[in-house]
Write a structure and sequence with these properties.
By secondary structure, this protein is α/β, with parallel strands linked by helices. The chain has a single domain, classed as Transcription Regulator spoIIAA, CATH 3.30.750.24. About 30% of the residues lie in helices and about 20% in strands. The C terminus is likely disordered.
């Protein structure tokens, strides 16, 4: 994973978002939010995503501590298909903000 600063948001690049990385991914996100107001998760190079990874993103989207500070981009067709199968495609669509949009 690589970290860069782009404008106001810090960008984190992920190559996998699976159960094997769920704990470390959440830790990296939490640590990054200690110094950044907003965070963008770049999933464009994410070759693996599973249900646990999607659940982590759903939890981030719904948690008041994270929901208005973390977003993601680069969701490939596999990510979108898995989110749709789980009924999470609307919730996990990039650029959604807060609970009031659901």
């Amino acid at each position: 994973m690589e970290q860069t600063i782009t404008g106001q948001a810090q960008v984190l690049h992920f190559s996998a978002f699976t159960i094997a990385q769920a704990s470390s991914n959440l830790n990296l996100i939490s640590v990054a939010l200690e110094t950044a107001e907003t965070l963008l998760l770049d999933l464009s190079a994410c070759e693996e995503v599973d249900t646990a990874g999607l659940q982590l993103l759903a939890a981030i989207r719904l948690d008041p501590m994270y929901q208005n500070r973390v977003n993601w981009t680069g969701c490939n067709a596999e990510f979108q298909a898995k989110a749709e199968r789980l009924g999470l495609s609307d919730l996990l669509a990039p650029a959604k903000r807060g609970l009031n949009e659901y």
